[in-house]
Each structure stands twice: as C-alpha cells, then as structure tokens.
Amino acid sequence: MQRTKQQALLFLLGAVLVGGVLGFSANRVLDSKSKGEGSWFHREGMYDDLALTPDQRAQIDSVLDIRNCQMRALMDPLKPQADSIRAAGQEQMRLILTPAQRERFERRRTEIDARRKAERESHGPRRSTATCK
Predict the structure, then answer these.
(1) Domain for residue 53, yes or no?
(2) Which domain holds residue 37?
(3) pTM listed for this prediction
(4) What integer is the mean pLDDT of 80-107?
C-alpha cells in the first residue's frame, strides 16, 4: 500500500516537473519568436507582413476576435483547476528544495509573474472592442 502511494506521488511529481519544463521551454520559444515589430504573434506585424488591405484587416480582426472569445469561453472554466494544479506542483517542489533554493525559486517566480504582468500591460487594452457572447 505504501509503495503504491510512493509510486503515485513520484509519478505526479514527474508529471509536474515535465510539465513545468515543457511550459518553460514553450514560453521561451514563443517569447523569442514574439519579439520584434514584424512579429506574426501580433496582429499588426502579421497584417504588415501580408500587406493586407484595410478591408482585409477588418475581416481578419473579426475572425480573430470571434476565435479569441471562443477560446476564452473554453478556457475560463478550466483556469481554477489549472491554477490549483500549478500551485500544488509548486508546493511539492518547494518541499524538495533547500531553504536557499526555495528563496531563489520564489524570487524567480516573482520575476516571471512581474514580467508577464508588464507584458500584459504593455500591450495596452485588448484590441477588440467586441464583447464575447
């Protein structure tokens, strides 16, 4: 019985660590690709790169706004669960770390959170004036 619990805990810890590494890696890759004026990860960069007409820009804006609303509707109910899983994984990692490592871990988490907040604020208000239904 005890061995099964240990295996389950190790599996869960492994999954959290692998997920964290993959998430961190994906964030780095996407971050590096999203830098720059002409980036496809920003509407204006894509529009300029494709040399879209004002009419095309308006039509694609509508498509993207609808898609974003649909994605938000899909993801919003999952956010509390995702946050809970993330917090549980972080707590499990804290238990493994030494006090000095925990301090660096917390400092890194604070830096990442601040960077994400600054990025959200630097993009200004959402481009879309459409409201999701």
Answers:
(1) yes
(2) 2-122
(3) 0.49
(4) 94
